[in-house]
Design brief:
alpha/beta; 9-stranded mixed beta sheet; 6-stranded mixed beta sheet; 28 strands
């Protein structure tokens, strides 16, 4: 390799580091400039290069260079450390770089960093401190201020319009727009539009669908008599956020991710469909599938672009910063996204433009379509990061299958989905696993997405599942806390350590007590350990008593109310009621089930899902209609419809609403689609049936609205039963319940 002089090394370092003066920093290289001239009074020493932010809370960089032939030894390192200590008189954090074009030494606050082999752009070195200085509280405050100004003062009622208007203003700022106090709303809007058209001009030639951003911006309407104070507050807040994004120090992607997620807390009831992925989860998923600077990253339901921007910033940082040729290639050729929702697509376009992504490889289309499949297939994707819409009506699992089918063999694909989404779509899930492998499931903390528990499902495309087990683990806590009126925040700085820990656990597939290895024929979700079911005699008495009340035509709610008054206040009550509560002393000790044996419900019953019947389709009649109720043996009313009736001698189980409520049906009936119907594979009578309804009701306590006891889940559920010679002891069950009938005088 050609030997370089010290002057040549210095100029090469200047170009690589990007040492040029900016509005926020003094920066350059030279042999003649002293620290005294740079603002360190009375210090005649001369650094070879410097990056000195005007805001001393940000880190400084000091450069020392040598000719190629000069080896980097302790005297040279000592010279660098001396200059770093001079800079440390003003700056809290200092990075020192010693370079001779072949060797490099990097020190961070006087501590030498291991593993440094090449000189990178200054943004890489500034990023060594970035995690310590993101002022999330400031972003929360700015977000609220912007939302209030646009919503309540300027009358922009649509949430996405408020977000897009703000994002477009940030794009305009990125491209040099002057948004200042005193500007009218119309002038502000015109200025944003002019810069938006300018920034989009070249990109639209490459991607005509970017015109949607201009179209949506043109549709945003505000009050004719706009509040000037509100306009001023808006522009000031936008300038603050823009300064953070433009700063050579701040991580812009963190600022925007926090901003977008915070904005969504102001949703109205009609705007609940879209869910934006929290920034710390995008960071986790990026690391879980080991995305690197050479990957081609795809998000088929990209929303505001959080995954793509996270990937962009991390990949660019790894490549040495925004000014490198590799960074330009990453932005133009290695990031691809699809979004169906028109206004959210516009928001994603704006977000990518804010970060000056270059080509903006976004398309507006349906990710479950054949058109999307062809588009994805043409992009040579190597990594997929996605949070598809959770609802079946938006095709959640169909989207997952279409993406897996369309990417190359071996592509690592990470999807956020509700925990039981694959099991609730078991037939489609089985088709997926015939072609692709579900390698890992990482269950996320329960409060990441309101109202639903989720996991990260990591697939390897075009590698069949076969008999391969699935690794699973559970991140029960992310360390974030709910702050009043500000959402969930990492106020104690706990997440970084947790992220490092869980990335290591998932990578090694060992090291944590929550780890499970799942048989894909049995489970496609992390199995949350449930509390052991404890049975008491009173549980069986309840089932028998409810059955007796129903058979005798006694209203259960009236009976309970009168029984309570009788016990508490000695109020009078009918004799037939008294007989039912004078059952005698009840055994209060748990029933010993240690000798009972486990059986799956699918081996004991053929389970059939009920069928939906609307009010409009109901006919008058005397057929029992069993639905989601805990009373009257599950019978809501009587109907005249007879085409989908279930036979007597079966058990009904509610899996939606009054989950786990179970009853023995003795007449033909219609079961609604909130009910599973259990057809026994053995000879049953009311005594054995009531034994089972008790066990079913207890097991139902482990399920809820976000974890329904569906037909597919129930088939896999294990129930412990009295057993004889390895088979259920139905004779014992029958006699046990008969004894309770006797005690009730029946």
């Amino acid at each position: 390799m050609k030997q370089l002089t010290e002057d040549q090394v210095r100029e090469l370092a200047k170009a690589t580091l990007g040492f040029e003066d900016t509005e926020s920093a003094l920066s350059g290289v030279g042999q003649l400039t002293t620290f005294n001239q740079l603002g360190f009074r009375g210090v005649p020493d001369k650094p070879d290069g410097w990056y000195l932010p005007k805001e001393t809370a940000f880190p400084a960089i000091i450069l020392e260079v040598k000719a190629s032939k000069v080896a980097l030894r302790q005297p040279q390192i000592d010279e660098l450390l001396k200059n770093c200590l001079i800079a440390a008189r003003k700056y809290r954090n200092v990075v020192g770089i010693l370079w001779n074009s072949e060797e490099i030494v990097v020190v961070k606050d006087e501590e030498r960093l291991e593993g440094e082999t090449t000189l990178k752009n200054k943004e890489y070195y500034l990023g060594l401190f970035a995690e310590n200085h993101i002022d999330t509280q400031k972003i929360f405050t700015l977000t609220k201020r912007i939302n209030d100004a646009l919503h309540f003062k300027l009358g922009i009622n649509n949430l996405y319009h408020r977000m897009i208007f703000t994002a477009c203003a940030l794009v305009a700022k990125q491209y040099g727009a002057r948004l200042e106090k005193g500007m009218s709303y119309n002038l502000c809007r015109a200025t944003i539009k002019e810069k938006l058209e300018l920034s989009n001009r070249e990109s639209i030639q490459q991607n005509t669908k970017l015109h949607i951003l201009l179209d949506v911006f043109g549709e945003i309407k505000a009050n004719q008599e706009a509040d000037q104070d509100a306009i001023d507050r808006f522009m000031e807040s936008v300038s603050d956020i823009s300064d953070n994004i433009n700063s050579d120090f701040w991580n812009g992607e963190d600022v925007m991710a926090i901003f977008f997620n915070e904005f969504t807390r102001y949703k109205g009831k009609t705007e609940q469909g879209q869910v934006f992925t929290p920034d710390h989860i995008t960071s986790l998923m990026y690391r879980l599938i080991e995305v690197g600077q050479d990957d081609v990253v795809f998000d088929g339901t990209c929303g505001s672009g959080a995954f793509l921007v996270k990937a962009m910033c991390n990949m660019v940082k790894e490549a040495g910063g925004n000014r490198t040729e590799k960074a330009r290639h990453i932005k133009q050729q290695q990031l691809f996204g699809i979004e169906l929702h028109r206004e959210v697509f516009a928001l994603a376009c704006a977000n990518m433009l804010i970060h000056k992504d270059g080509k903006t490889n976004l398309e507006q289309m349906d990710c479950q379509s054949e058109e999307a499949a062809k588009w994805i297939s043409s992009k040579h994707i190597t990594k997929v990061l996605m949070n598809p819409p959770f609802e079946n009506k938006y095709g959640c699992v169909k989207i997952v299958k279409n993406v897996l089918d369309s990417v190359p063999k071996g592509t690592d694909c990470a999807f956020i989905m509700p925990d039981n989404k694959l099991e609730k779509n078991i037939h489609l899930a089985r088709r997926i696993l015939r072609e692709h492998r579900l390698e890992k499931i990482v269950k996320l903390p329960s409060d990441i997405f309101p109202g639903v528990t989720t996991s990260v499902f990591i697939f390897k495309a075009h590698v069949p599942q076969g008999e391969m087990s699935i690794f699973a683990c559970h991140i029960a806590d992310d360390g974030l806390e709910n702050i009043k009126n500000q959402g969930r925040q990492d106020i104690r700085g706990r997440w970084k350590a947790k992220e490092d820990y869980w990335v290591e656990v998932v990578y090694r597939m060992s090291g944590d007590d929550t780890i499970q290895w799942l048989n894909p024929q049995e489970h496609l979700s992390y199995q949350v350990p449930t509390e052991k079911i404890v049975l008491y005699e009173s549980d069986f008495i309840r089932s028998v008593l409810n059955h007796v009340l129903y058979v005798n035509g006694i209203d259960e709610r009236d009976f309970k109310e009168r029984a309570l008054e009788y016990v508490l206040y000695k109020c009078d009550m009918p004799d037939e009621y008294k007989a039912l509560i004078d059952i005698g002393e009840t055994n209060r000790n748990p029933i010993d089930t240690t000798q009972w044996r486990p059986f799956t419900y699918r081996k004991l019953f053929n389970i059939v899902k009920g069928k939906r019947l609307t009010k409009a389709d109901m006919k008058e009649g005397d057929v029992n209609y069993v639905g989601a109720t805990a009373f009257n043996n599950g019978i809501r009313e009587t109907i005249g419809n007879t085409e989908h009736l279930h036979t007597p001698g079966t058990i009904t189980v509610c899996y939606n609403g009054s989950i786990g409520e179970s009853f023995f049906q003795m007449q033909p009936y219609w079961a609604t689609d909130d009910v599973n119907v259990l057809y026994p594979r053995f000879k049953i009578n009311k005594y054995i049936a009531l034994f089972f309804t008790t066990l079913i009701r207890k097991e139902g306590q482990h399920f809820g609205y976000n974890n329904k006891w569906t037909k597919e889940v129930m088939e896999r559920t294990v129930v412990k039963l009295p057993a004889s010679n390895g088979q259920p002891d139905y004779a014992f069950m029958e006699q046990y319940i008969k004894n309770l009938f006797t005690r009730l005088g029946q």
